[in-house]
Design goal:
Shape: elongated
Strand order of the largest sheet: 1-2-3-4-5-6-7-8-9-10-11-12
Strand content: 25-35%
Largest sheet: 12 strands, antiparallel, barrel
Oligomer: single chain
Length: 370
Amino acid sequence: MSLDQNLFTLHVTPSKDDPNIVDLVDPSGTVHYRKRRISGVEYKVEVIDADPLSESILITASAPSPTSKAKVLELCNPTSVVELKYTGTISFRWGFKWEEHDFEWKREECYMIRKPDPPVLVAVTKEPTGRLRTTSVQILDYNLNRFDIDDRKGLEIVILTALLTFHDSNDSYHTKERGSSTAPAAPTVLSYNRSATLPGSSDDDGRPTPPPRPAPKTGIDRIAEMQAQRGEYNEVVVEAEGSIEDYAQYCSNLLQDGAMLFITVKSSESNDVPKVLQVVEETKRIRYKAGLDDSEELHQYVLYDTEPKKGPKRINLNDDADKKSKYKPPQSLSVHLSKISMPELQPKRNANDKVPSKDSRKEEKKGWWK
């Protein structure tokens, strides 16, 4: 990312004498910060004040390894601990919290996160193409001044230290990559002592016999497996596979769960509509035999032809009165079995239905003796 030449800039300058030291230098050549990596089993770096009169340790960063997804940053004088975590999945994102604000590094930029408001850019870097190796960095004080931050110097040190740890992680990753490409591991040759193997434990050519495949699930276990693949816990889709009794027992087991207030039994295809009704009746029969209906009565709500039809919509302009009067079975069916009342699923009065008037009801009451 291009930097603003009018802003204060720090250049990341590795030491020519010691590979474990990196200096942050301004354009005039003054060293402001110095990062020093401590050799050891675990990853640890120190960022010190480059002033020759003090050279005090400002902050330390530690982790099990340079490529760890979490690092601990500990500021000195006064002591304050900041946890730096990798928050991305595919993209490069590291987050940390400072005082009451959340910050996030995204490759070349660091933002203050202000949900639901848009993030605010607080630091930018300049990197070579295709490599996480910063050459320059700028802290955008004019954006930080818009917010209440008590220790701005400490925040600046945390932002810069996090960036420097990214360099070590990147170097460690590329070092492993180069090592694996230059010195490929020799292929492992497996040998088998056929005389030491038990009878039936290997093939004739000495290879071990793979374990037998597990037997396919049947009955209620197969129904549970089919429903688990759909991801809807309280929805039972009835298919051609599986018996009515197994579906009904699976539904009854679901309703025995105290946290399950209702289940929906629905058809997979039009041919499964009659089977849905049979499953519902068998479910109620199982509960009746177990005496569950006495303490917990089920409410039943039936919805049909709620699934949208596939393909383009066809408009029939022919006046086939005979065909319209014939009954057509529903193409889809959903039955809700609920432990609680669900008024939103109750059938509603059709707008075309006529409500009988008071006079007509009076006439009905008079009967033939009027």
